């Protein structure tokens, strides 16, 4: 039995019928046609699927699309304004905080959440803030540098 | 034509330049395999064996086929004439089990593909896969290579009851004499556990069959598009020129995608049979179970030395866990370990016996370092064990035995020729950075207060930049094409297939310097067999050392042609090419690259005996490997109440030859160290006695996380390689190879007052806590 849902993704309204079991990540990728949120583990460990739901970072691989009914979703595609990169994106670029790039959209959104909660984090606070997002390429050091740079207002 | 003075252009090689790959990646607009959608595309889900060893009595696909939306179900009977999944390596006496794309009458490991279900949507495909009824008759499995060698062990392949896949022997010098001459011999069993490579993007394939053209396009997350194409043509029995492989964005490989997998061929088969495009995306569970694992060594080392610390010879019995099949390079990996046995040391006597053992597990193959981390871990542990036995300082014993800076090129007893080096330099630098003498004093004081501080050194060498061709089961060269477009912009096609390493940037740096153009005037394309003539791929730290060198030579050819055009257009024989223009040194007249390109393509006025266009292709085979080296030091503190290991400092001094982009080199070192540290402290693919993988999800497989990583203090010495014109050696695997012995040596050093001499990885808190409790008791 399909259920009707309405939600906003990156400022754009979406309405449609979905199976109740459809995962939010599959809605975003298959229905809304987005390519930013990725599927890395399907168990909430890696965070490649991280999106913002009503302004809070969530893992969209372990949420149903129906749970996003009536809510606002922001993905990496919705970050930045007027064709300008968000300062966090710019910081990731400047600091070489990505290699294969697969974890990056989720990592950037988690980093945004981290600074929203704690605008001036220590290195250790940054590392703990990122522990729900896995990166197999960078060893995290340049990611920590990027978050620090973004917190210091560089890259803006 | 203009009159100009050409100033010396700013060079980009050697500069930290942010990557040109990144804008698409940080905005989520890059295209990975799962982002590809096609009209009428179907989805495949694979039915896999839950048993490590079983006979298949029967398969009933009917309930799955009755599910609405299911297009087809294929089983072993459908593909029995295709294949096999290829093993590219060969050794005398190698036993190669026939590796079908789908299981025939038996399954050999948990995850073994048994059937493929194809449906209109991925949820339906997954539902229907659960409806395929497979009747198994389970058999006894064996998952441990030493147990598999024991008398009476279950046979993985019934035709080979001893489970031996191959044996391999290599020796150099006179090891028997070295051991007779020895004043001290230390022995140790050292394991290098099975690891799961865990690229963040799992494997994935989209296959697109065009019946009108009889052509097949395979989109696959692979490190080797051209080799995959050549080998898939053989597996599928289709003409190679009608097969195209496209590598879109690849979300990490680390060797695990240096492969030809059954699923890549299967999807080609399925697309052709159903006449529609088909997509298969591996789940993480499948990735843990069925993508190759790395390592899987049990090594028995014996090191002979004099009491003054002079090393004389090394013996190794190497037991390699093969798994149930050979993948592309499986049997070759431990032979690389043997080649690297001398490490950085100048002893002349080597003896190695390798035995490859079948187990009911997924195959092992190349994972970051591929045989070299195992070798380095063993050697660097043995050097520390010898130092402890002789009560010598571990830094001093290394310095004493290093190949000297004046001894290059240096021939090893394993038949290699080390290209260049100064092995003491990075160790001296690392020792100075940590204030080694001060640290030793602090350690002594801490010990008197019951605190366990350790200092661990590893001095590693590696073998990178493969070829030459005879050293590889495939060509050991790389290919590059440089095309100056009619507008003067530059397109580079490289046979190296980067997937995160950043060659779209570093190769553009090389081009910009050589042609005197801006970096934004260059684009680097790769990963499509229809675009790039041919290539070998990115693995073994060869991208820049071989692919970059091929590019360099293509650029030289092109520059010769550009100068020919410049001389013709300037009507001068004395023409220099610099700063993106040809200059007549006498008159000061110049023509820009864009003007030359326009003339070259317009083709009306050509220099004598010159073809139109500005394109050069170069296939370059290196005369030798490159041999990067370095020294890592880990300073650790062990919590005696919990067994937790705290890394106080991590210093990495790496020599990867000439550095093209320091920012990217540091990124490679950091990531490499993270994977080495993962092996040292946390990661392990754990199979139980029944061959069930207990750490088969990210919930159970302990990957390094941000808060667990130490700050890596990375610096370099820079010894150019004479092997290639760029002087580069490669850096992709250095961090991984250098790291694990530094960390384990450090923890063993910390606990040495308790009589601890060796600890096998991973150094879990439980293992460490038990050692401490045992030592106290």
Model description:
The complex is a heterodimer of chains A (156) and B (777). Chain A has helices spanning 24-31, 87-94, 104-117, 123-129, 141-151, and strands spanning 3-9, 12-18, 50-53, 56-59, 72-74. Chain A is an alpha+beta fold and 156 residues long. In chain A, strands 2-1-5-3-4 form a 5-stranded mixed sheet, sandwiched between helices. In chain A, helix 2 crosses helix 5. Chain A starts with a strand and ends in a 5-residue tail after the last helix. In chain B, strands 4-6-2-13-10-11-12 form a 7-stranded mixed sheet. A 5-stranded mixed sheet of chain B has the order 8-16-15-14-9, sandwiched between helices. Chain B has a 4-stranded antiparallel sheet with strand order 1-25-24-23. At the A-B interface, helix 2, helix 3, helix 4 and helix 5 of A face helix 1 and helix 18 of B.
């Amino acid at each position: 039995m399909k259920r009707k849902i309405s939600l906003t993704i990156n400022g754009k309204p979406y309405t449609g019928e979905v199976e109740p079991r459809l995962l939010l990540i599959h809605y975003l990728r298959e229905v809304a046609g987005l390519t930013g949120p990725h599927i890395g583990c399907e168990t909430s460990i890696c965070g490649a699927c991280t999106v913002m739901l009503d302004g809070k970072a969530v893992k969209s691989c372990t949420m149903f699309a129906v749970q996003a009914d009536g809510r606002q979703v922001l993905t990496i595609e919705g970050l930045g304004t007027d064709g300008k990169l968000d300062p966090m994106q710019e910081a990731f670029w400047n600091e070489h905080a990505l290699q294969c790039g697969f974890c990056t959209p989720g990592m950037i959104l988690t980093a945004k959440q981290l600074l929203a909660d704690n605008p001036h984090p220590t290195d250790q606070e940054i590392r703990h803030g990122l522990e729900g997002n896995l990166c197999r390429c960078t060893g995290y050091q340049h990611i920590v540098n990027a978050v620090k740079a973004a917190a210091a207002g560089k890259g803006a | 034509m203009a009159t100009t003075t050409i100033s010396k252009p700013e060079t980009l090689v050697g500069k930290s330049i942010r990557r040109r790959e990144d804008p698409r990646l940080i905005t989520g607009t890059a295209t990975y395999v799962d982002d590809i959608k096609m009209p009428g595309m179907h989805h495949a889900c694979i039915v896999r064996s839950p048993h490590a060893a079983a006979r298949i009595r029967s398969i009933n696909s009917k309930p799955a086929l009755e599910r609405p939306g299911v297009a087809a179900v294929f089983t072993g009977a459908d593909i029995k004439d295709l294949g096999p999944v290829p093993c590219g390596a060969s050794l005398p006496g190698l036993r190669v089990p026939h590796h079908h794309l789908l299981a025939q009458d038996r399954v050999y490991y948990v995850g073994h593909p048994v059937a493929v279900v194809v449906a209109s949507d991925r949820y339906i495909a997954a539902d229907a896969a659960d409806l395929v009824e497979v009747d198994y008759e389970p058999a006894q499995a064996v998952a441990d290579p030493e147990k598999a060698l024991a008398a009476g062990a279950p046979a993985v392949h019934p035709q080979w009851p001893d489970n031996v896949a191959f044996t391999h022997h290599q020796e150099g010098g006179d090891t028997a004499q070295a051991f007779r001459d020895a004043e001290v011999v230390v022995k140790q069993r050292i394991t290098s556990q099975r690891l799961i490579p865990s690229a963040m993007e799992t494997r994935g394939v989209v296959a697109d069959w065009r019946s009108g053209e009889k052509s097949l396009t395979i989109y696959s997350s692979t490190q080797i598009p051209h080799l995959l194409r050549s080998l898939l043509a053989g597996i599928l029995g289709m003409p190679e020129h009608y097969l195209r492989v496209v590598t879109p964005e690849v979300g990490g490989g680390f060797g695990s995608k240096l492969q030809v997998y059954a699923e890549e061929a299967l999807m080609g088969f399925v697309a052709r049979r159903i006449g529609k495009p088909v997509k298969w995306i591996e789940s993480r569970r499948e990735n843990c179970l069925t993508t190759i694992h790395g390592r899987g060594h049990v090594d028995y080392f014996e090191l002979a030395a004099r009491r003054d610390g002079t090393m004389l010879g090394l013996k190794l019995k190497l037991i390699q866990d093969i798994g149930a099949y050979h993948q592309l390079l499986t049997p070759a990996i431990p032979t690389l370990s043997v080649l690297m046995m001398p490490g950085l040391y100048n002893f002349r006597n080597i003896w190695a016996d390798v035995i490859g053992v079948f187990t009911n597990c997924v195959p092992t193959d190349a994972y970051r370092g591929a045989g070299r981390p195992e070798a380095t871990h063993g050697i660097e542990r043995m050097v520390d064990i010898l130092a402890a036995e002789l009560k010598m300082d571990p830094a001093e014993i290394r310095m004493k035995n290093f190949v000297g800076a004046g001894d290059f090129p240096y021939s090893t007893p394993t038949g290699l020729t080390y290209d260049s080096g100064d092995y003491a330099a990075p160790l001296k630098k690392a020792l100075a950075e940590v204030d080694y003498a001060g640290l030793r004093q602090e350690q002594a004081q801490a010990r008197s207060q019951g605190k366990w501080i350790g200092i661990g050194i590893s001095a590693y060498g590696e073998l990178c930049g493969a070829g030459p061709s005879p050293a590889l089961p495939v060509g050991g060269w790389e290919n590059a094409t440089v095309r100056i477009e009619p507008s003067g912009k530059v397109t580079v096609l490289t046979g190296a297939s980067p997937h995160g390493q950043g060659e779209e940037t570093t190769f553009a740096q090389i081009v910009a310097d050589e042609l005197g153009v801006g970096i934004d005037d260059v684009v680097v394309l790769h990963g499509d067999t229809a675009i790039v003539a041919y290539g070998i791929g990115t693995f073994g730290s060869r991208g820049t050392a071989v692919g970059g060198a091929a590019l360099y030579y293509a650029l030289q050819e092109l520059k010769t042609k550009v100068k020919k055009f410049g001389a013709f257009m300037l009507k001068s024989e004395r023409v220099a090419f610099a700063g993106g223009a040809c200059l007549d040194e006498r008159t000061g007249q110049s023509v820009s690259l864009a003007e030359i390109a326009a003339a070259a393509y317009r083709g009306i006025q050509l220099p004598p005996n010159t073809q139109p266009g500005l394109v050069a292709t170069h296939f370059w085979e290196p005369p030798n490997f490159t041999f990067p080296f370095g020294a890592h030091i880990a300073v650790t503190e062990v919590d005696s109440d919990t067994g937790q290991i705290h890394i106080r400092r991590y210093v990495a001094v790496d020599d990867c030859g000439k550095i093209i982009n320091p920012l990217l080199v540091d990124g490679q070192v950091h990531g490499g160290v993270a994977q080495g540290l993962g092996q040292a402290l946390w990661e392990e693919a754990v199979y139980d006695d029944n061959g069930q993988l207990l750490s088969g999800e990210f919930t159970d497989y302990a990957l390094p996380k941000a808060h667990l990583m130490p700050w890596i203090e990375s610096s370099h010495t820079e010894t150019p390689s004479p092997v290639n014109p760029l002087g580069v050696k490669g850096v992709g695997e250095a961090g991984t190879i250098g790291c694990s012995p530094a960390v384990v040596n450090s923890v063993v050093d910390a606990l040495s007052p308790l009589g601890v001499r060796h600890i096998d990885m991973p150094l879990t808190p439980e293992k460490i806590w038990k050692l401490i409790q045992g030592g106290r008791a």
